[in-house]
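User: If you would, consider this record:
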Amino acid sequence: MASSRSKSIRLDDNTIGLVRRLLQNHVRPHYWRIGGALICMAIAAASTAALAKLMEPVLDDVFFNRDQGRLVAVGAMVLTTFLAKGMGTFGQSVLMNFVGFKIIADFQERMFAHLMRADLAFFHANSAGGLVSRFINDVQVLRKAVSDTLTGIGKDTLTLAFLIAVMFYQDWALAIVAFFAFPTAVLPIVKIGRRMRRVSATTQDEIGDLSTLLDEAFQGVRHVKAYGMEEYEKRRANAAIQSIFRLLFKATTTRALTHPIMETLGGIAIVAVIYYGGTQVIEGTKTPGTFFSFMTALLLAYEPMKKLANLNANLQEGLAAAQRIFTLIDVEPEIVSAPGAPRLAVAGGEVRFEAVNFGYAADHPALESVDLLVPAGKTVALVGPSGAGKSTVLNLIPRFYDVEGGRVLIDGQNVREADISSLRAAIGLVSQEIALFDDTVRANIAYGRPEASEAEIVSAAEQAGAHDFISGLPAGYDTRVGGRGVKLSGGQRQRLAIARAMLKNAPILLLDEATSALDANTERQVQAALKELMRGRTTLVVAHRLSTVRDADIIYVMEAGRVIEAGSHGELMALGATYAQLYALRAEEDMSIEAATDGPEADADTDPASDPLSPGARTARARA
């Protein structure tokens, strides 16, 4: 089954469609600026041609005929021509750069808005570095291509046209001699452009991979140093950097192939003109001024001709970038509100799973025929080994993923049939992976409710047990917490996350391993804040330490995507099955952890192989 879970960005090769889409959606809105730029280009192009034509009176009237009266007039015309060329070049440069930069901004805004709508699975299928590469590198390549292409089509083509007109006006036969060789350059230039497109696309992919590698290394630098992997990461980075270097050098070499082609053809044309035109001057059929005016036009035409030869390579680079950008924009989210979907009406906040099936991959089910109930206003806990499906249950409630079979209901309403914004507004989430942003403490607490008053923010912090440590920070609530909250301890980060959920005040609360990465002392402080947060709310808890869930109204024990036991703590202990064995072992572990804790933070992550609910652990216990 095709699903967003398996979607990643792929390229297609519809060149005409890409060009049409670029022109219609992103270039056409700037038509009046482009029109103004074309007028400026025409002025600059005509001025360039006029300079070539002015070589005739300069040589014939001034130098050969020594006409003093013409000296001032010709000088004035040359100065006026240069001024006109300068103003035209300035105008087209300002207008075309505005268009190029505005296209960048439009693309970046559109991509970011699209990504904010994308499914969670999309971000799992595409690396952060690859996405950032599209924002930074691809749009820059595209901007340069659009600017160069429009300038080439405008200024260089017009300049070439005016200069050719001067050359044909001076001597049509000599003009034909000058240009006979250039059509032979078309085929190799087209081939060079195609090769540039392939190399450019590969280069952008490699830059995306390097961005991902750098992000991982910088964010995980603590572990890099702890495991002595500096040299390993250096080798990985060097390999990626060298790969990009080779691709960039290949692109430069490919692009440079146009130079020997154009230089050789240009040399042939100039030699032919000198031989043919020089013969006419020697024979007296053409004046030196006319010949040098023609030569000036030919030499001036050489530069726009070379730029036009490179135009195809620039265009192909831009199209490769456009492919990557459009393929990102074209991936539509699958998890959206149905047309006309009603807003979720939450009365008590009861959550019910009915025969739910789900898998992240087609042949790897994560949940199989799961039935469970979270009564309104009650606390329900999920326990079990890693990979049992506990976090998956939480992910299905706010529709981070959609079920493949069965239903998820909130107060009897199928979450797939409700407006998704109202669904997520009714749910508060506190997880082990705390999402703090490089902003102030105030902004992080108010994330989700930016309109909250200062009193509401402080009240939420007080309820979460965070106000005291916030007051002790250098700038209090205006202190920036650093990327991912790096300037705060684990317990402080967690209490800010709880304060955020307090401020949101959603009727349904999801706690996903909210204290598993904390030491026992810090966990006790956070648990007190969590109890305050859970009061009066429908709460579903995924817990690592069983001491945190024994007061839950219902406990579901999960294994391999199924619910194998359900009941209160007392009922499950009386049953004497999996939960009772697990609780006995966990109680011993918790006591050991509490006795050993002597720092503000500890890593409480447990090796899955030592999980008391895992099959291997149960086998070991049976042998014992």
